[in-house]
Each structure stands twice: as C-alpha cells, then as structure tokens.
Amino acid sequence: MIVTQILEDSKANRALVVEKLLQGGCVALPTETVYGLAANGEEDTSVAKIYTLKGRPHFNPLILHGESLEAFSKHIVVNPTLEKLVDLYWPGPLTIVVKKKSATDFALASAGLETIAIRSPQNIMFRDILKQIPFVLAAPSANPSNFLSATSAADVARGFQGAYLEQEQVEKLYILDGGPCHHGVESTIVDATLDAGVRILRPGPISAEHLQKQGFPILHDDRSGKIMAPGQLARHYAPQFPLEIQCSAPQPHQAWIGFGPQSFTHTNLTFNLSQKGSLEEAAANLFHILHKLNEAYLNPHCQFDSVAVDIIPETGIGLAILDRLKRASAQ
Ligand code: TXA
Ligand code: MG
User: Is 210 helix (H, G, I), strand (E, B) or coil?
Assistant: First the structure.
C-alpha cells in the first residue's frame, strides 16, 4: 500500500527528500507544469520504482530532468536545433526528444528507445533539489498511470493514497508541497532528432505558433497513427466520469465546466476554468477542477451523471487544454 505524506517546504524537508533520492527512492516534487514523481534516472532500480508506483507500462518512456544541457551532454547527440531550443526555452516547460549516444544509456527510463526525452524545469524548489544530487531525475507526472495529472500536493495525495502494491508492501511517498503549479498542463514535447525542423509530440505551454515565430519549421507526423509518445494514446488523463467537450450549454443532469464570463451557473455543480476568459488561467485550473469533480462523482449523493465543458478556443495553450480534454473524454 502507498502511504502519502505531504511535506511543507522547509530546508529540513528538502533535505529529507534529497536523502530519499540519494537512497534510490521516489518522491513527488512540484514543477512549473504538473507535479512529478521523481527518482534517480541513471539507476534502473530507482526508475523501476516509478513504474511500479504509477502502475505504468514499461514501454512508456519517462522524461529526464536536469539542471542544464550539460547534465545530459555525455549521453546525448547534440545538434544545432537542440542548442537553439535550449537557449530559447530552458529552464522551462519544453521537453526535447534527442538521440542517445549509446543504446544502453538510461535503458529503463528510455524504455529501450534510441531516443531520450530531456527537460530542465524552472520551478525553484525542483532546481534546488537537482543542485543537491549528483544525477538527473526521471519524473513522469505524479499520478497513477492513465489517471488525471496533479497540480497540487493534495491532488498527488488523492491519486496515490492507499494505492495497492503487490506483496503487501508498504511504501511511504513524500510529497514536497510547492503550492499550485504555474502552468497546470504538462510540458510541450518536441522531437528534435530531424534536421528539417521539429515535430510536436505533445502540445503544452509552448505553442507551435511560438516555435514557428522563433524560426523552427513545424513538421507534421507522416507516420499516421504510430504512437511515439504514449501521452498520445487516445484515452489518457482520464477521470472516472463521462466527459463531453466543446459544449455550448450543459444538460440538466450534467455538471458544468465553464470558460469565460458568459458561462452558465444554473446546473447542480459548476466550475469555471477562467471567469475572465484567460487560457493561461484555464490551463492552471484544469486538472484541479477535474480532480474536484471526480471526488464529487464518487460520492454516493452525487447529483450528476456526466460533465460538460464549455467551448475552448483552439489557439495557444488552448490547444494543450483541448488535447488533455479530448483524451479524458475518449471512450
Ligand atoms: O511537464 C512534464 O513534462 C511533466 C513534469 C513532471 O515534468 N512530466 C510528464 O511526464 O508529463 P509523463 O511521463 O507523464 O509524460 C512523458 C511523455 C509520455 O507521453 C512519454 O511517452 C513521452 O513523454 N516520451 C518520453 N520519452 C520519449 C521519447 N524518447 N520519445 C517520444 N516520447 C517520449
Ligand atoms: Mg503523465
């Protein structure tokens, strides 16, 4: 069973988390996107613990987090596209898929692929932890596999508390509380292994428009249907309730997630992603609202049988919000 413990931010608690990582364990840490479930990315035994705690299939590779490009450079093929992306966007919410130098590097974190996904997060608590350890951290989103990502310490705890592990094992999971995550959706993932430009594997806070404006040609996936990032699976980020998206109004039996000032407030349960119609604010609120609704749905007195979401504009980080909602609503 997993027993969670939320740790308020203090020097002593950061030291506790560092100690756990040095011993090869897993901890949940805040990042500017979503909370991450972190462990030594260079040790397969530590990485294996992440897969076990999340119940994640081993074919789904993890993102490695380091202080800077130098933390990875021994193990990866550096090309001009990578260098330019790093200069512009690191530290920040951009994950870059690059070629590994050797097949055996980060074997488990990369799920045996020839590539590895790397990122340098901006969150100062996460960066302080990285400074105190001599390895990079593998860190998928801190949620059980296929469930909603977590953007607060309480949402991490809600996902894992009491989760069953094999062999009656009891595992203490520390969650370092960094407050709500700034962006609220996972990093943008780009494939930088091709010379002609970048391919977007997962939309996120850094938009295709922005990358294009900075001079990166956007390549479109020609291998239709082939999954390179399992975050691209049709059903992912899933709550337990049925979800309908791009709705103009709720039905009487539905809970409602509105967007903007004109949104309805007359159904039995109503949230608003952003009263003022800001997509950035909507992204930051998204997963927390889905968590709240999931909790309400599991209550025996629940008054709704599904959830409808307002129309979200298909631009900027709105595309990342819609990507997560589409996967959450897929049957
Ligand atoms: O914002 C984020 O990126 C968060 C925070 C914690 O950093 N992390 C995160 O990790 O979202 P995760 O494991 O939930 O999502 C990682 C995605 C998965 O869809 C995985 O398939 C993809 O990255 N990925 C990892 N390595 C890859 C690779 N070599 N090629 C293609 N996709 C890869
Ligand atoms: Mg995830």
Answer: helix
The answer to whether the beta carbons of residues 15 and 129 sit under 8 Å apart is no
Q: What was the pLDDT predicted at 287? A: 96
Q: 268 CA distance to ligand 2 centroid (A)?
A: 30
Residue with tokens 């399992």: 230
Confidence of residue 230 (pLDDT cuts 50, 70, 90): low
The Å distance, Cα 262 to ligand 2 centre, comes to 32
Encoded tokens for 261: 């000032």
- State the pLDDT at residue 131: 98
Pocket test of ligand 1: the residue of 127, 155, 186 to mutate, having most ligand atoms within 8 Å of its CB, is 186
Task: Tell me, in angstroms, the distance from the centre of ligand 1 to residue 62's CA.
Answer: 5
Task: Note the pLDDT of residue 173.
Answer: 97
Measured from the CB, is residue 272 less than 6 Å from ligand 1? no
Distance of CA 45 to the CA centre of its chain: 22
Considering only the C-alpha atoms of the chain, give the largest distance between any 2 of them, rounded to a whole number of Å: 58
Residue 208 C-alpha to ligand 2 middle, in angstroms?
20
Ligand number nearest CA of 121 is 1
Q: Are strands 218-219 and 243-244 parallel, antiparallel or unpaired?
A: unpaired
197-223 b/e (C-beta count within 10 Å ≥ 16 → b): bbbbbbbbbbbbeebeeeebeeeeeee
Task: Return the percentage of the chain with pLDDT > 70, whole number.
Answer: 95
Number of helices (H) and strands (E) in the chain: give both, helices first. 8, 15
Residues 6+ apart with CB under 8 A from 15: none
Is any ligand 1 atom within 6 A of the Cβ of residue 60?
yes
* Closest-lying ligand 1 atom to the alpha carbon of residue 60: 21
